[in-house]
Amino acid sequence: MVSPSWRGLTRTGSFPAFTFPCPAGRRCSQSSNGRPAWDFRAVALLSSEGDTHLATEEVRPLFARIAGLGLAVLIHPAMRPKGAAMDFDLVASVERAADITRATVRAMYGVLPHFPGLRFIMPHHGGAAPFLKGRLQMFFKPEGIEIPDELKLLPLSPIERGRLGLEEPFEELFGKVYFDTAGFGGWMPATRSALMSVSPRRLCLGTDYPQEMHNGADIGAHIKGIRALDLPPEEIDAILGGNAAEALGL
Fold this sequence. Notes:
alpha/beta, 8 strands
């Protein structure tokens, strides 16, 4: 069951942050201070919490409420995803990125088909989702599109996807998701790589300050790197603020 505190979500308070539903008999908490004089534009959720994730059935009533209020959804990495490896600091360098990747796919396949107007902002360039976009497409076989028996258990090539009409529905889902540029401490190869498969109109400046970037010099260098991208000025401006304003309904 979804906690009553989720069902009571209203457009008051600062960005409210929710954990996923607590075990039976325990109350889930939210960070909203509930002051009606304040407005907010998004709800922050973890990429997962134990066995619960974005596409879990019990989370759907929350998304229905968020969609009804016209809010965006800011995803934050789970600090220690279930089953995460802890040696060599893999939990920070690899496991969180993997969980963000799973969250992106679950939002696309398990949430957006039910609430197509929801606006997700995924952290850290979407984990590996932009890099894996082609592989995700290979195994994208949604209900309603007939797949020949001989291909049902096989990955699909670009030619096969085009013939079956799978490219457009995948791009429609992928194109609904926003990604921030945090997660790599301002390392520009990550942003340039993401732009090979993500529209500039879906990237939002992110710094993860003060966790990743600790001072103004780091933030300034990242902004300078974005301004140096080989993109039209209007798309640079979109990454630096316009896309986030659009996602948040500002």
